Predict the structure of Polysaccharide deacetylase.
Amino acid sequence: MTESAHGWSRRDLLRRGALAVTGAAAGAGATDAWFTHRQLPLAGGPASATVGSGPQDVGAGAVPVIWSGSTTQRLVALTFDDGPAPQWTPMVLDTLAQHRVPATFFLVGAQVRKHADLVRDRLAEHEVGNHSWAHRDLARLDAAEAYDDLHRSHDAIAAVTGRPPRLVRPPYGHLGGAVLHAAARLDYRLVLWSAQMVEREFPDDPAGHARRIVAGVRPGTIVLGHDVGDRRRLVALNGLPDMIAGLRARGYTFVTVSALLGPGVAPTPTG
């Protein structure tokens, strides 16, 4: 086998040439992948929390994201998503009124406009938050769409309840850069949750479900529930009196989310 002037055999030269071609192809693939990602709407798209290269219109310039309250006091906040709707919202409001429990309702703007009579004059003891206009996944929308959606819902909620919401909970708890940007523009606190009602685990067992929630609550817990949806969720709502009684027996006081977060907001008396 002959060698080149550098002491390389023909086989070495062929191997090195193949590696060079493979490397070039790999480099081209990496470049293509990079350009593919660059083609996403990096500024203003769903993943981006910035819009363009100009000044950012972001209200106070920050948006807190909250899962629970930072407290050692035995405080708990009940929250209800997706309403209002005539099937269950009145039932929830009646139960809360009977037991003198304040709660936070994350309302869907289109539902508020459609069922304004359900919440008008019935939320004086409660807090309202924004849960989007039509329960679309805001994390899939670009910044302009996410803002327009939340702003439309914001106006509808304020018009019916007389109070502009200061909290937002995106549908499904999905976050994206556009959601954060829109929330900042509206000077919202973004509220998720640290405990969730798990109705499917307790079919036809409201008392068992209530015990599960009561056992899992810690100081500062924000509990996610729903006042709209599949009938299986009625397990949680039918067990709501037991849940309230169980938490009070453990020394818990019910507050709205804003009272839980403070600062300096006294808990609403709950009997």
In short: The first helix runs from residue 10 to 38. The radius of gyration is 26 Å. The chain has a mean pLDDT of 85.
